[in-house]
Predict the 3D structure of the following.
Amino acid sequence: MSETTAKRHMGLKTSRAITNTTIHIVLIVISIIWLIPFVCIVLQSFRVENTGQVGYVIPKVWGTANYSNLFQTDFPRWYTNTFIAALVTAVLQTVIVLCMSYTLSRFRFKMRQPLMRFMLILGMFPGMLSMIILYRVLKDLGLTQENATPGLILVYIASSGMGYYVSKGFFDTIPMSLDEAARIDGATRAQILYKIILPLSKPIVIYTILTAFMGPWGDFVFARYIAFGASAGKNVAVGLYDWLSRDQISNNYTMFCSGGVLVALPVTILFMFLQKYYVEGVTGGAVKG
Amino acid sequence: MQHGALRFLGGVPVMSSKSKRKLTEFLFLLPTLIAFLMVIIIPFIFGIYYSFTDWQGTGAASKMVGFENYVAAFQDVGFLHSFLKTLLFTVLNIVTVNVVAFIISLLVTSEIRGRNIYRAGFFVPNLIGGIVLGLVWQFIFSNILPTIGQSLGLSTLSKSLLTNKDTVMFTMVTVNTWQYAGYIMLIYVAAIQGISKSVMEAAEVDGARYWTRIMKIQIPLMANAFTISLFLTLTNSFKMYDVNVALTNGGPVSMFMNKPVQGSELLALNIYQTAFKYNNMALGQAKAVIFFIVLTIFSIIQVSYNKSKEVEA
């Protein structure tokens, strides 16, 4: 190695160190901005001297009263509603989405392309407008107001077939020759899906479960309309939002914050654990698809 | 068919294996199909149908009124204003979300320590529903920032940015970018990782500078990811509802074509208010159909434009 290349190498090394430090600084600055709302909501949830909105962030008196007060309200009920809806939806939607994606990825039938395009375009229709008619359908079935949770589950899973996009993309990356070999060996389609495709698709299965869980967890538009003011049928987003109506906000703001923290915690923890798979799921599905 | 019947008489299975398979496939699809029909297709078809009637949302009989609701929608100043605001919001939002997401994705794919933590962290706002986070931002904009503004003596900050019709759009774009950029970032991260190292190294050896490498190699090779990201941000911005409700609920009042309108009311909220607050279901449906057609046209144009720019490595 000549002297000049060695020098150049040194230069590269220092310049790389400088670049890395710069990147770190930029990332830390962005992260701080990103964290501000979370810091706000956590700090406010421990503020006990005043229950309304105030002009400062750090509490003057700390306490956990906002959390214990939650249990005197309908909040536990809302939390249960949301949790049940999210859990059931996660299970059923995952099954539907994976079957749908597998079908669209592996089967070749006459209406395949039109069907895919149709569902993508149907997704453009503003959901809230089908809501009026949907509400009537669900009301006839007795699934509104106090019984909103099963009604909501129906709504969530019914539209789940349209979410085939990412997982189909992932399945497309698994070579067809694997299926063909298994078919020759006498495996049925279902066996291929369970024994060959799914074990190879762990990231996308987890991605699908997570997405399916998060949708109902944060849903507001449908949940609000289908619960239609009945407190027992609300989910957390609706319940918390209603706490902040103009005449109630001064009593409920800090309690809203503690509720918000409890809503954010499980999904954040879940995500932290499954983060690796989630990223791989998006990687394989959205881009290569 | 006849053949099958004959075989049945002969005591062998009724159906040929092909039609049996078809039936199995159909049975598997049935539950999904029923739910899909009930929750998506029927409301969709009825929604279009009711937009041509004077339906008021109750069971009472309604009569056909032709395109009257559509004419009324285009004469509604509030609707036109929402339309323009939504277009503005969509353009601003697509640009900021994608620029921020792209920059962050470049940063977190560089060879630094802790990049996975950063990736997860930027994604977290996406996990928690827009309504709760929107309400937290509402508190920051209406309480915290004015306090900081007053103590620093900045006149623009000392009043809530949410009540000023010139800055309210900026707050919505900020919140949406904060919430959505992490998701788009993941797509870009995935795309960047998909570009083979040797291509980038070859360019580096050939003396291409960092900027040139990004513009001439990375971006063209990531075209696929841009198509998806732009499509997602386009539809997401156009449908924006919960952040809009949580932050401003449509306010403040401003003037448009000499009439008072809700200054930050985007299309989805306008449609919701028409249908549910003013109980004008048929007009709401007509507005929704217009919304649907416009969004479909925009996204088809966007996707086919982007597709034409995609290249193979």
